[in-house]
Design goal:
CATH superfamily of the largest domain: Type I PLP-dependent aspartate aminotransferase-like (Major domain)
Number of domains: 2
Strand order of the largest sheet: 2-8-7-6-5-3-4
Structural class: alpha/beta
Bound molecules: pyridoxal-5'-phosphate
Shape: globular
Radius of gyration: 24 Å
């Protein structure tokens, strides 16, 4: 080392002052460092250094277990379809939108005029809120649930009624029933729910959606539909076909691994679709639409992703159980764990070990949401979990 900075001072800055945006070299085994750079460094100093570099590397590029993404991404066939469609990139009016609409409609068993393709399903949440709340109608949603809709409604200045989850961390549909008034223009039901992963039994949610949709519009968010393995589970799409005041949401972000490509779907009566369509801000990306068409057809890849998710869930569940901790029964590609420690501390402890987990979901202040990565990633996570939860 020819630098005027002393070894001891340098060690101090790297191990203690890492937040300053310093670009550090890859972590080296302590022995290699001892040989190469600082023959006189103590073993403790070197290990401290190696740990700090590893922590910083993890902070820069942690394993993402935070946003319920598909860790395998899109299917190879979807990727190929996107590449094949490259020549569409400079043209308006791509036919891919209508082809995708028809392909999705066929998959879920509804006529194409019952489907709207959006830029991510987040857009469904926004345009449904706009279409139903623009004249000041109120919104009813569980708490906590997927926050995009209630947050958007609050930004619109709408009154949002929140109903806490029940003792099983699932939608409390009886309590939601009691909060329904004629002022409410849209009811949001996320099933399975994000962040808790819980599912309301088919008969119960079906009954609720049926009688509530006789009084107002109900949006059923089925973003995690494809991951549900519970045999009694059924989608609410058939209630749309019965002509009820129901919107079902689906997305290509989860099972199809297209989160960055932004493709979502609304399924509803044609008059509701038409009303919401007026509030959209454009059509989806043509290349993303091509990928989604291929993804919908690639049932083999979908099966693979579900199997991998089931494996990843089992690895995490076993690790959580072995530590004497609990989690909600998840029907999704994430798990909601009762860490029994403040979320911020667990989040940081995970990040220090190279894993980015979900944000806090008040009032669940000592719970954490962990997205399911690849089985290898979940094994690696399971190895650090005892350390993380020990505090
Ligand atoms: C329940 C739920 N609905 C909707 C979305 C929105 O997904 P996207 O806009 O990527 O389709 C998410 C994303 O995580 C979600 O968890």
């Amino acid at each position: 080392m020819t630098s005027p900075v002393t070894r001891r001072a340098w060690l101090r800055t790297t191990s203690l002052g890492l937040g300053a945006g310093l670009m550090l070299p890859a972590a080296l085994p302590a022995e290699a460092l001892a040989e190469a750079a600082w023959p006189r460094a103590t073993r403790d100093e070197l290990e401290r250094y190696a740990r700090s570099v590893a922590a910083e590397r993890a902070r820069v590029a942690p394993i993402r277990l935070a946003s319920n993404e598909n860790p395998f991404g899109m299917s190879p066939r979807a990727k190929q379809a996107m590449l094949d469609a490259y020549d569409e990139h400079n043209k308006y009016g791509s036919p891919s939108y209508d082809v995708l609409r028809a392909a999705f409609a066929k998959q879920v068993g509804v006529p194409a005029d019952h489907v709207m393709v959006t830029q991510g399903s987040n857009e469904v949440l926004c345009v449904a809120t706009l279409a139903h709340g623009i004249r000041g109608a109120e919104i009813l949603a569980a708490d906590p649930t997927f926050e995009a809709l209630p947050t958007y409604a609050a930004h619109m200045g709408l009154t949002v009624h929140r109903v806490p989850l029940d003792a099983n961390h699932a939608h409390d549909l009886d309590a939601m029933d009691r909060r329904l008034t004629s002022a409410i223009g849209l009811v949001f039901v996320c099933n399975p729910n994000n962040p808790t992963g819980t599912l309301v039994a088919d008969a119960r949610v079906r009954d609720y959606v049926k009688h509530t949709s006789a009084r107002t519009t109900v949006l059923v968010d089925e973003a995690y539909h494809d991951f549900v393995t519970e045999p009694s589970y059924r989608s609410m799409v058939d209630l749309v076909l019965e002509g009820r005041n129901v919107i079902v949401l689906r997305t290509a972000s989860k099972i199809h691994g297209l989160a960055g490509c932004r493709i979502g779907f609304a399924i509803a009566r044609p008059d509701i679709i038409k009303r919401m369509q007026g509030f959209t801000t454009g059509v989806p990306n043509a290349l993303a639409a091509r990928a989604a068409i291929a993804a919908i057809a690639d049932t083999e890849w979908q099966r693979f992703c579900v199997e991998q998710n089931t494996q990843g869930q089992a690895i995490l569940r076993d690790a959580v159980k072995a530590l004497g901790k609990s989690q909600t029964p998840s029907h999704t590609n994430f798990a909601f764990l009762h860490a029994g420690q403040p979320h911020a501390a667990v989040h940081k402890a995970c990040l220090d070990r190279g894993f980015l987990i979900g944000r806090a979901f008040p009032p669940y202040s000592d719970w954490v949401r962990v997205s399911i990565g690849t089985p290898d990633e979940m094994r690696a996570f399971a190895r650090v979990l005892p350390d993380v939860l020990r505090g």
